[in-house]
Design brief:
alpha/beta, Leucine-rich repeat, LRR (right-handed beta-alpha superhelix), twelve-stranded mixed sheet, seven-stranded parallel sheet, 8 helices, 17% strand, secreted
């Protein structure tokens, strides 16, 4: 009886405990399933090892706080600048700044901030189409000695620039297409390392009045159309240009023309007479020009400088040169000229403004009456000619050899002006050659 009662008690206890154990096991399974579904214990390494708990998403706002503010942009915005034009100019300048490889004067250190009009070498004005919007209108890098492989992508991207002066730098490569600069009227890239053929793109610049390409490495021919540009100044000296000068060179309205120190060939174009009312100074100095000295040169009624020294021009001096009443510097030295130095030309020192007449290194055999006084006063230089009775002449054998050569140039005694009516008073003070614009163009600044 007692045993039966004990067994009965044990069965009741088992029935009471069994559901509790089953529920705990099922609860543990459910909890483990929930943990797996939210990533606990799921690693990215594939090794089965436990990985750190994932960081909350940036968009998670479970903490109830506001999302962090975005950091401010380091790039300048258009609103930082006085106007949109200056903003775009800033971008162009900064891009060019990064291409500069040398800056001995520390110029580009000033190219900082949101006011490009204050940068060294840059000047602002309002363009005609935007009178209330000042922007970069002038770039003057003269003497900065900056180094850059090209100015393409710089000057051609400043659409309102009117003057670009970059004398004495170390810019190289060709000149970029500047046809997108409608206001450009002065272009000076002299004394650099630009190369290639004549920059033909400048021919489309209808407002250009000043073009200075001297002291570069340009080569080849000069297109005739450059002399159709409405220029006041054209400096092409000290390059590697060659081939004959265009026959219509005289159609140019240019006042100051330097073609010196190149390799131009052929004659001085007779069309030069068409520039009689515009050409003030012209340098053909030190080329390979040939042919007879044109009579038409004597029609240059306002010319103060005519220099064709050190070429291979031949013939006698036409008497028309006696009409060059405004000329102050007349240089024909180092050529193949011969005959008599005309008296009418030497009289220019009295009747006109002649201060220097250089005829040395030719083959003249005699002097006009008025010329002897100019030799004494050193206005006329006729050394190394064939003039009997004067010191420092060529050896007789050298003179004879030349004078026996066939001569084909005509002797022109026609004087196309009335000297008694058109003579002018001598200038009160004769200028020195260093004061003339064209002669100044021959002086190269010190090496970079």
């Amino acid at each position: 009886m007692a045993i039966r009662t004990l067994l009965l008690v044990l069965c009741i206890i088992f029935l009471l405990v069994s559901p509790s154990l089953s529920g705990r096991t099922q609860l543990e399974r459910q909890r483990k399933a929930i943990e797996i579904s939210i990533g606990v214990g799921v690693g990215g390494s594939g090794s089965g090892s436990e990985s750190p708990t994932a960081s909350p998403s940036p968009t998670d706002n479970s903490c109830g706080c506001s999302p962090p503010a975005s950091p401010p942009s380091s790039e300048p915005q258009p609103s930082d600048f006085p106007n949109l034009k200056q903003y775009y100019a800033y971008l162009v300048i900064q891009r060019f700044k990064r291409s500069i490889t040398c800056d001995p004067n520390g110029v580009i250190q000033t190219w900082v901030g949101y006011r490009p009009c204050t940068y060294q070498g840059f000047y602002c004005a309002a363009p005609p189409d935007s009178p209330d919007t000042p922007t970069i209108a002038s770039v003057d890098f003269n003497g900065f000695r900056l180094c850059a492989p090209t100015v393409a992508g710089f000057v051609d991207q400043l659409p309102d620039v009117a003057l670009f002066h970059a004398n004495s730098n170390n810019f190289s490569g060709p000149i970029p297409d500047l046809t997108g600069l409608p206001y450009l009227y002065e272009l000076d890239v002299s004394n650099n390392l630009h190369s290639g053929p004549f920059p033909a793109d400048v021919l489309a610049l209808s407002n250009l009045i000043f073009l200075d390409l001297r002291y570069n490495l340009f080569a080849g021919s000069v297109p005739a159309s450059v002399f159709a540009l409405d220029l006041d100044v054209l400096f092409l000296n000290n390059n590697n240009f060659f081939r004959p000068l265009p026959a219509d060179l005289g159609s140019s309205p240019v006042a100051y023309l330097t073609l010196a120190n190149n390799g131009f060939t052929g004659p001085i174009p007779r069309s030069i007479c068409n520039a009689s009312k515009t050409l003030v100074e012209v340098l053909f100095l030190n080329n390979k020009l040939s042919g007879c000295l044109p009579y038409e040169i004597g029609l240059l009624s306002i010319a103060t400088v005519f220099d064709a020294g050190f070429n291979q021009v031949t013939g006698p001096i036409p008497w028309s040169f006696g009409c060059l009443l405004k000329v102050e510097q007349l240089n024909l030295a180092g050529n193949l000229l011969y005959g008599e130095v005309p008296d009418v030309v030497c009289r220019l020192a009295k009747d006109g403004n002649l201060a220097n007449l250089s005829l040395s290194g030719n083959y003249f055999t005699s002097l006009g009456l008025s010329c002897w006084d100019l030799v004494k006063s050193k206005v006329l230089d006729v050394r190394h000619n064939c003039i009997v009775g004067l010191p420092e002449q060529r050896p007789p054998s050298e003179c004879s050899k030349f004078l026996w050569r066939p001569k084909h140039c005509p002797v022109s005694h026609y004087i196309p002006c009335s000297l008694s009516n058109c003579s002018v008073k001598p200038a009160t003070s004769k200028s020195k050659s260093s004061e003339y614009m064209t002669y100044k163009a021959l002086h190269q600044p010190p090496p970079n």
